[in-house]
Design brief:
single chain, 447 residues, alpha+beta, 2 domains, eight-stranded mixed sheet, 23 strands, elongated, binds '5'-O-(N-(L-prolyl)-sulfamoyl)adenosine
């Protein structure tokens, strides 16, 4: 389900409303850069429109999450944003959710709500067509907008009222089987975040209003994070989990290894324990952003909403369930917090809106235009996403825009390089420029 095989756009025609001034209303760096780079615009407090550049990043993150969910054996479906109140009354959460829940009435005066999460609805859907123990295990997920009327929406998309979430739900016959599903999601989270270039630290967490007694948060460290994190410095420096996980094998050793690495972070919120147990020169007090949260809560919803199966021996059993969330829209801000410099965003290649930014320093010059056009179409034909700055702007303004929007490779065309039949390629991350032949660059892209 790729959005586009290759996306090739000309900046002169692209809707990219870049701001020169720093917007006053934004308190965090990611929020400022997202506004300045023309990625989002606020519609109302905590509610944003996603402009073309921001939308592309959102969709790339979504696709990584989707691929890793599918790989773990989860099945995608799509539930609506609007839900009936009845199922929430059955689970007892209609009152519990209080003012955070956006309640609406339809024309028949029926109570509806904009879903803040989907435990009730998925349990009802799955439960209605459930017959026997042979119908499980299953993990179902969707990627859908949520609404929570947060008291203090802030930091742009990081704590929004309307936000985009991947939420998965597991159904199993026993707590032990449920734990296997939990482990699959745990590993798929490690893989998803690693693919986005993030160091996500899993830590034990409170289940809060979702319920249950087994829960982990996935945290990335950032100055503007909302949670306080205390941990041992040895546990921060992780290398990404790459291809070691096979979902049909036993995942528990992988999880144990990861959580053991973070043994100190298991109680990461516990400041006292931290001061008692971690040596002074190993103490890291940091702030973190919660990008994912997983829960195992047993039969809380299956009992209330009737997700009950017949057993082989004639008995009945309410299914054991877990739920697993990733903040897709929050991740856009989170990745920027983790990867930027004073000039703007530095996108990891896997989520970059464009791989290549083509800068023509002499727009209108026949030779330069010709070379730029040929690179533009060649890059597109190789399947890479490219944005071509074909405006008649000053060089300085063009460079500033490319740096701000964070495109990993900038290809710079000017009379001097054109004469020598080479191109200049700047790596956004290292800031280093290099001259190379056209073919050398195309090979780099192919690799
Ligand atoms: C798990 C999936 C749940 O809602 N039910 C379904 C469970 N968990 S959660 O922790 O409350 O949310 C999951 C993730 O969603 C992101 N998130 C938000 N992102 C932006 N703005 C918000 N206001 C917001 N609230 C939650 C977080 O990444 C969280 O980990």
């Amino acid at each position: 389900m790729r959005i586009n095989p290759s996306h090739a756009v000309r900046m002169s025609k692209y809707f990219l409303p870049v701001l020169r001034e720093t917007p006053q209303e934004a308190q965090t760096l990611s929020h400022r850069y997202m506004l300045r780079a023309g990625m989002i615009r606020q519609a109302s407090a905590g509610i944003y429109s996603w402009l073309p550049l921001g939308f592309r990043v959102l969709k790339k993150i979504e696709q990584i999450v989707r691929e890793e969910q599918d790989r773990a054996g989860a099945q995608e479906l799509l539930m609506p944003t609007i839900q009936p109140s009845e199922i929430w009354k059955k689970s007892g959460r209609y009152e519990d959710y209080g003012k955070e829940m956006l309640r609406v009435k339809d024309r028949h005066n029926r109570e509806m709500l904009y879903g803040p999460t989907n435990e009730e609805l998925i349990t009802e859907i799955f439960g209605n067509d459930l017959r026997s123990y042979r119908d499980v295990p299953k993990i179902l997920y969707h990627i859908q907008w949520k609404f929570r009327d947060e008291v203090r929406p802030r930091y742009g998309v990081m704590r929004g009222r309307e936000f985009y979430m991947k939420d998965a739900y597991s159904f199993d016959i026993s707590p032990e089987a449920g734990r296997l599903s939990y482990n699959k999601m745990f590993v798929s989270y490690l893989r998803s975040f690693a693919r986005m270039g993030l160091k996500a630290i899993p830590m034990k967490a409170d289940a809060g209003p979702i319920g249950g007694n087994l829960s982990h948060e996935f945290i990335i460290l950032a100055e503007t994070g909302e949670s306080e994190v205390f941990c041992h410095s040895d546990y921060i420096d992780l290398d990404a989990l790459k291809d070691e996980a096979e979902y049909d094998g036993d995942l528990q050793p992988i999880i144990d290894r990861w959580t053991k690495r973070y043994a100190a972070t298991d109680e990461i919120h516990d400041e006292e324990k931290f001061h008692r147990e971690v040596p002074v020169n190993r103490r890291v007090c940091a702030r973190g952003i919660e990008i994912g949260h997983i829960f195992f809560f047993g039969t809380k919803y299956s009992e209330a909403l009737g997700a009950i199966v017949d057993l082989a021996d004639g008995g009945e059993k309410a299914l054991e369930m877990g739920s697993y969330g990733i903040g897709i829209s929050r991740l856009v801000g989170g990745i920027i917090e983790a990867s930027h410099d004073a000039n703007g965003i530095i996108w990891p290649e896997s989520v970059a809106p464009f791989h290549v930014g083509l800068v023509n320093l002499r727009q209108g010059d026949g030779a330069c235009d010709k070379v730029a056009e040929s690179i533009f179409s060649k890059v597109a034909s190789l399947g890479s996403d490219i944005i071509y700055d074909d405006r008649t702007e000053r060089a300085g303004a063009k460079f500033a825009t490319m740096d701000l929007i964070g495109v990993p490779y900038q290809v710079i065309i000017g009379p001097k390089v054109v004469e020598r039949n080479v191109i200049e390629v700047k790596n956004r991350k290292t800031g280093k420029s290099e001259e190379m032949s056209h073919d050398a660059f195309f090979n780099l892209l192919k690799a």
